[in-house]
Design goal:
Gyrase A, domain 2; alpha+beta; elongated; two-stranded antiparallel sheet; 2 domains; 6 helices; membrane; 8 strands; transmembrane helix; four-stranded antiparallel sheet
């Protein structure tokens, strides 16, 4: 999270009035997804108008869906708006002059994930966790791989989680062969075992998670 000030805003509404487009849950003060109205202006027209916020005012980037940088891992989904606006860190996108930000907003997420303020943190301790002290970097997607290592369950779904990045976090590190096979499953390079054994394994995994949650709630 980064610190913000309600007066430090990009006036999107001056370039593209809110009644000319739709926006959904794919936005925050730091980002805005712009969808054309059913009988409204085209994507190209909306883009040209809101692009002026970037070129004339600055402190934001405006992209058509296909132009979104690959580093965001964001453009290959039907739920992504045809136009996406991303504010510069510390700035917020004001889309409606009659609905300004209030003093209750002092911090915000949603900026470029290369900014250190956007990086997650994790505090982990337990009988299966190796005592490492502070680590330089932790990727949020790797929580999945870490939990599976702790449960000694080595048949992941196809995910972005990288088991190699968190293997040293656990006291009992699997063999390199196990880790490589885990990685192949996660990348979809090898099929998982047949459905019957997977159902049995997944049932066990779910039961363990439910028991762990119940224990936490009681204590």
């Amino acid at each position: 999270m980064t610190t913000v000030n309600i007066s430090v805003v990009v006036p999107i509404h001056k370039y593209l009035p809110p009644e000319e487009y739709m926006s959904g849950v794919d936005g925050s003060p730091a980002t805005l997804g712009i969808w054309p109205l059913p009988k409204g202006k085209s994507v190209d027209v909306l883009y040209e108008k809101v692009k002026k916020a970037e070129t004339e005012f600055g402190h934001c980037k405006v992209y058509k869906k296909e132009e979104i940088p690959d580093e965001y891992h964001y453009k290959n989904n039907d739920r992504v708006a045809p136009i996406v606006v991303i504010a510069e860190k510390g700035w917020m996108l004001l889309t409606n002059e009659s609905n300004p930000f209030t003093g209750s907003i002092v911090g915000n997420h949603g900026y470029n994930n290369s900014n250190a303020d956007m990086h997650p943190f994790i505090i982990a301790a337990g009988p299966g966790i190796r005592k490492l002290g502070r680590v330089d970097r932790f990727y949020q997607v790797d929580v999945y791989a870490l939990v599976l290592l702790l449960l000694k369950y080595y048949m992941p779904a196809v995910v972005d989680s990288d088991v190699m990045r968190v293997a040293t976090f656990v006291k009992t590190i699997p063999s390199m062969d196990v880790l490589k096979q885990f990685d192949r499953y996660a990348k979809g390079l090898d099929p998982l075992p047949d459905a019957s054994s997977m159902l049995e394994a997944n049932t066990f995994f779910i039961l363990v998670l439910l028991l762990a949650i119940q224990f936490i709630l009681r204590h």
